[in-house]
Write a structure and sequence with these properties.
Number of strands: 8
Function: Catalyzes the reversible cyclization of carbamoyl aspartate to dihydroorotate.
Radius of gyration: 18 Å
Keywords: Hydrolase, Lyase, Metal-binding, Plasmid
CATH architecture: Alpha-Beta Barrel
Number of domains: 1
Bound molecules: zinc ion
Protein name: Amidohydrolase family protein
Helix content: 25-40%
Organism: Thermomicrobium roseum (strain ATCC 27502 / DSM 5159 / P-2)
Distance between the termini: 40 Å
CATH topology: TIM Barrel
Largest sheet: 8 strands, parallel
GO molecular function: carboxy-lyase activity; hydrolase activity, acting on carbon-nitrogen (but not peptide) bonds, in cyclic amides; metal ion binding
Shape: globular
């Protein structure tokens, strides 16, 4: 692929959507997967190779936040934040990068967060259930202090997870750590400068999630990982009204394609004035891409 393509289109391309939740495989995860085995990972046949994904988002007039998950102390496999930065550099018109650190690495995790900021990444993804940690444990406070100080957003998987599903003991994964209260609420209270995204409708605790959204200005959520027709009704109702400025579109690709998500979202009873907020404007403001909002065509109401 022509690596200059991104640069030439970065300022001119029309952006209608920002997908804030897209997985890529890096480091040991990419090696395990092998490049030539990037296959259609979903029923609709879209490859999750980052080059193919970039073209997919260009066709959708979209941008995407990409990340991996480092859970090396549990699995022995290390993710690579450099590779995330490299994919962003290769497709700067499409990708925004979030890093990942394994919170159990202690001081090394702090240094890695600082390196993520130096690499130009905009946030850090955490998966408390898969990484087996309680975000409100004071041992991890230095992580939240560092992210807040560096202006890095933190994205927490929330709600149940398919990771480990069906395996003996759910592969040892405790769903409890996906619960918004107390884990996310505690650190949102303690670190008001920390900008937090709760990923996914946090089923079966989505009501707790909505309570935090209403209560804490520094907490947001994405609607990824759920086909819109299955998103709990209360989440849709709040997204359409009280928390309409705090909800982001996300697919969780390759688990769910943005195409299917957008198709089903179009069927939901969301106000015309709210749709562009969820699909683009809220994330653009959150990520500091305000020019996308300012230059946007007015929403038809
Ligand atoms: Zn995800």
């Amino acid at each position: 692929m022509d690596t200059t393509k991104g640069d030439s289109t970065v300022t001119t391309r029309r952006i209608d959507i920002i997908d804030i939740h897209v997985h890529v495989r890096t480091g040991d995860h990419a090696k395990v997967w092998e490049r030539d085995r990037y296959v259609p990972a979903n029923q609709e046949g879209f490859s999750d190779h980052p080059d193919a994904m970039a073209d997919m988002y260009r066709e959708l007039n979209g941008m995407a936040v990409i990340f991996d998950i480092d859970d090396e102390t549990r699995t022995g496999l290390k993710a690579s934040n450099e590779e995330i930065a490299q994919w962003v550099a290769r497709h700067p018109d499409v990708y925004i990068g979030f890093g990942s650190v394994d919170p159990w690495k202690g001081k090394a995790a702090i240094i890695e967060v600082e390196r993520c900021a130096a690499l130009g990444l905009k946030g850090i993804k955490f998966h408390p259930a898969v990484q087996d940690f309680a975000p409100n444990d004071p041992r991890f406070f230095p992580l939240w202090e560092t992210c807040a100080r560096l202006g890095l957003a933190v994205l927490f998987h929330s709600g149940t997870t398919m990771a480990g599903a069906g395996q003996p003991g759910g592969a040892g994964i405790r769903l409890e750590y996906g619960r918004p209260i107390p884990y996310i609420d505690d650190i949102a209270a303690r670190f008001p400068e920390l900008r937090i995204i709760m990923a996914h409708p946090a089923w079966p605790w989505h009501e707790e999630q909505l309570a935090i959204l209403r209560h804490k200005p520094n907490v947001f959520m994405d609607l990824s990982g759920w086909a819109p027709k299955y998103i709990p009704e209360s989440v849709i109702r709040y997204a359409n009204s009280l928390v309409q400025d705090k909800v982001f579109f996300g697919s969780d690709f390759p688990m769910l394609t943005p195409h299917r998500w957008l198709r089903e979202f179009a069927e939901l009873p969301i106000k015309d004035s709210v749709r562009p907020k969820i699909l683009r404007d809220n994330a653009a403001r959150f990520l500091g891409l305000t020019h996308l909002v300012e230059h946007a065509l007015p929403a038809s109401e």
